[in-house]
Write a structure and sequence with these properties.
- The chain is an all-alpha fold and 177 residues long.
- The protein has two domains: 72 residues, RNA polymerase sigma factor, region 2, helix turn helix motif (Rna Polymerase Sigma Factor, Chain: A, Orthogonal Bundle); 83 residues, Orthogonal Bundle (Arc Repressor Mutant, subunit A).
- Helix content is 78%, strand content 0%.
- The chain contains seven helices and no strands.
- The longest helix has 34 residues.
Length: 177
């Protein structure tokens, strides 16, 4: 079986795509992400056909195993994003300060928190997401790049630019006070 032949590959896709999609759908429960996983599985097969070894088993089980593995990775990335969002919400919606804190410090902290939240909201979406995932989500630049589907350098730039804008905004706010 020549996986590099477009006609053969097309026939393989027609035969195995429903099973690959069903496998991804069972793990993810989301049609759009299952479609993405299906596309990724077949793209990987097209780019690296030699990874499939007929001596180790059939093509269908191989593709479904790839789909399950990739779907679990996608699911885990979604879980990490959810945890990052929860941490951010916890920081943003911080509980009332303890009564034993000094009132002037409480007011100052509350003002600073509002300023930080405002500055974070003012960032462009891509930078806000990168900074949030890095600091409140605890993700590395590599994990942020993979999650956002961008090159590593782009993810690092988004974090760096976002932090630069936050510093500038916070410095301007401090001067105004």
């Amino acid at each position: 079986m020549d996986l590099t032949d477009p006609l053969t590959f097309s026939a393989i896709y027609d035969e195995h795509a429903p099973g690959v999609y069903a496998t991804a759908m069972r793990v993810l429960g989301d049609a759009a992400r299952a479609e993405d996983v299906t596309q990724d599985v077949f793209l990987r097969l097209w780019r690296s056909p030699r990874r499939f070894d007929e001596r180790r088993g059939g093509l269908g089980p191989y593709l479904r195993l790839m789909a399950r593995s990739r779907a679990v990775d996608v699911w885990r990335e979604g879980q990490a994003h959810g945890r990052a969002r929860q941490r951010l919400e916890h920081v943003v919606e911080r509980a009332e300060p303890r009564s034993d804190e000094r009132p002037d410090q409480v007011a100052e902290d509350r003002d600073r928190d509002r300023a930080v939240r405002s500055a974070v909201r003012a960032l462009p979406e891509s930078q806000r997401e990168a900074v949030t995932l890095a600091y409140w989500g605890g993700l590395t630049a590599e994990e942020i790049a993979r999650r956002a589907g961008v090159p590593l350098g782009t993810a690092k730039s988004r974090v760096r630019l976002g932090l630069g804008k936050l510093r500038a905004d916070m410095g301007t706010m401090a001067e105004a006070a």
